[in-house]
């Protein structure tokens, strides 16, 4: 029988944290790897979550990072990522993780990749399954398998003494701040809560000559135009969660 490795992608979000706990309850501890990719643009409180999760579960974090931030990557590539081409996610996270997993396969391990996607992300799930099959490993989605809600993941984090990232006070995900995959409501929230980061990306649009928010037959709008216009209707969060006492005053 081949030796086995269970690689849990830890992002700093509540679903990936829950998956880390699930993996340690389900598999021998020595088989489990917590894999983290630092985009150098994470919310400061997300770094706290990573440290506290590792301490609470008494399990180390294995980091594999490119070393560049998204804006540094865009400068190197001569192209500003947008919501139709988020190459930063692919280069700074996904491809690094795939190389790590395929390296374990090459060493002779049976590899399972554990991902914290929810049932609301079917396209991402399908993509991960296909990449896993091509790479010789298996992708698992325990949040979906066990019917766990995002709120239940947040509550579990609180139960082990790890408060979810304060980024959840205003964003749906604990991604890097200034995620080019975000839509109009997200970027208005960045403008309100992280104005310095918003300004860096607004200047980048001017430098590269195209907007971050693009797609379909809708009018392309720059970040500065977006703020000037605001939103004509309230846009809710599909998976908004309550995160307990945090910097947003809950």
Across the major sheet, the strand order is 3-2-1-4-5
Q: Which sequence of SSEs, written as H and E, runs from N to C? A: EHEHEHHEHEHHHHH
- What is the fourth-level CATH superfamily of the largest domain? HUPs
Number of helices: 10
Unreliable spans are 245-250
Class from helix and strand fractions: alpha/beta
Shape: globular
| Count of beta strands | 5
Task: Report how far apart the termini are.
Answer: 50 Å
What fold name stands as the CATH topology of the largest domain? Rossmann fold
Helical content band = 40-55%
Overall pLDDT level = 91
The biggest beta sheet reads:
5 strands, parallel
Portion in strands: 5-15%
Taken together, the total number of domains comes to 2
Chain oligomer state: single chain
Tell me the CATH architecture of the largest domain. Answer: 3-Layer(aba) Sandwich
CATH class category name of the largest domain:
Alpha Beta
Give your account of this protein's structure.
With about 250 residues, the chain is of the alpha/beta class. The chain has 2 domains: about 5-165, Rossmann fold, CATH 3.40.50.620; about 165-230, no CATH class. It has helices at about 15-25, 45-55, 70-75, 85-105, 120-135, 140-145, 150-160, 185-195, 195-210, 225-230, and strands at about 5-10, 30-35, 60-65, 110-115, 140. The protein has a 5-stranded parallel sheet, sandwiched between helices. It starts with a strand and ends in a 21-residue tail after the last helix. The relative contact order is 0.16. Residues about 245-250 have low confidence and may be disordered.
């Amino acid at each position: 029988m081949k030796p086995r490795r269970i690689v849990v992608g830890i992002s700093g979000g509540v679903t990936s944290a829950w998956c880390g706990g699930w993996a340690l309850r389900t598999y021998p501890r020595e088989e489990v790897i917590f894999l983290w990719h630092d985009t150098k643009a994470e919310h400061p409180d997300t770094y706290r979550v990573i440290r506290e999760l590792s301490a609470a579960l008494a399990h180390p974090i294995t980091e594999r990072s490119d070393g560049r931030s998204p804006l540094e990557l865009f400068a190197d590539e001569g192209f500003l990522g947008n919501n139709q081409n988020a190459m930063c996610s692919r280069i700074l996270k996904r491809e690094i993780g795939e190389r790590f997993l395929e390296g374990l396969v090459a060493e002779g391990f049976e590899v399972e990749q554990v991902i914290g996607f929810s049932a609301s992300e079917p396209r991402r799930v399908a993509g991960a399954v296909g990449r896993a099959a091509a790479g010789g490993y298996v992708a698992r989605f325990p949040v979906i398998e066990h019917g766990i809600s995002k709120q239940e993941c947040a509550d579990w984090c609180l139960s082990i003494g790890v408060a979810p990232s304060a980024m959840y006070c205003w964003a749906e995900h604990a991604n890097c701040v200034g995620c080019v995959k975000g839509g109009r409501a997200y970027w208005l929230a960045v403008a309100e809560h992280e104005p310095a980061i918003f300004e860096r990306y607004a200047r980048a649009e001017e430098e590269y000559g195209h907007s971050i928010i693009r797609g379909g037959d809708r009018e392309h709008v720059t970040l500065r135009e977006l703020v000037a216009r605001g939103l004509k209707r309230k846009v809710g969060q599909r998976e908004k969660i309550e995160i307990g006492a945090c910097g947003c005053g809950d």
